[in-house]
Amino acid sequence: MLIDFVPTVGGVSLAEAPAFKKSPGGAPANVAVGISRLGGSSAFIGKVGADEFGYMLADILKQNNVDTSGMRFDSNARTALAFVTLRSDGEREFLFFRNPSADMLLHESELDIDLLKKARIFHYGSISLIDDPCKSAHIAAMRIAKSSGCILSYDPNLRLALWPSAEAARNGIMSIWDQADVIKISEEEITFLTGGDDPYDDDVVLKKLFHRNLKLLIVTEGSKGCRYYTKEFRGRVGGVKVKPVDTTGAGDAFVSGFLYSIASDPSIFQSKNIFTGD
User: Fold this and answer.
1) How many separate helices (H) and strands (E) can be counted in the chain?
2) For the chain, domain boundaries
3) Which transformation does this protein catalyse, written as a reaction (predicted)?
4) Structural contact between residues 216 and 269, judged by C-beta atoms closer than 8 angstroms
5) Is 8 helix (H, G, I), strand (E, B) or coil?
6) pLDDT digit string (tens) for 230-275?
7) Hey, is 249 helix, strand or coil?
8) Which tens digits make up the pLDDT trace of 135-179?
9) Superfamily of segment(s) 2-264
10) Could you say which of 44, 85, 120, 180 has the lowest number of CB atoms within 10 Å?
11) CA atoms within 13 Å, Cβ hemisphere of 260
């Protein structure tokens, strides 16, 4: 969880932006808020700085009925910051300040084990895998959740600028790939993880990314909608026509929706009708 600074003017680069507005950010936190707004029950586990930004983020989670008992506050590191803009060409530009930030310093000993054991779904990304101690805490949390019967949900949420190298990012993301029950991935991430293969080729997805423990793999395609794959069936759901303003957080809102649906009705894994709407 971090603070996103977003330009007050759209369609400009970070250097051209005249001013920035602060907003709460961080993919797993976004998902937790989204689930709560849909009427579900969610909690957030992670660390922020014992600073004004950290307290602000905790308050925003509380205002959105997200359980914050798993949050930790570090007095020796600051809350992470990110500057995000949507350029005129439609591409997002990120500039991160983490050197190190508090989120990177979550220790395994600081995990709320009872909170993990109570969860029905444990959702995570890959940024927490970049370096220890957070990496070890992340892997331990997965192990505890899995042993408690939790569904493990993974959205790699590639942010290449945060990794030491592209190879480190690819290896890090794939290091826990076969443990997830549910994976959401974008077209661009397919191309990156497969070394340049066609993201629209079902054979590429099934042979290189689908694994035997996986219950559901979803490929998002922006305005076109998404594709889905299970052991028994696969298909496509078209997108809803809208006039886009800013796509930041759109993938997290999508994840909130399908995780809320899974929590409400686990038979979603077995019934193709749920995907097609028939």
Assistant:
1) 9, 12
2) 2-264
3) D-fructose + ATP = D-fructose 6-phosphate + ADP + H(+)
4) yes
5) coil
6) 988 889 999 888 887 777 788 999 999 999 999 988 777 776 655 5
7) coil
8) 999 999 999 999 999 999 999 999 998 999 999 999 999 999 999
9) Ribokinase (3.40.1190.20)
10) 120
11) 18
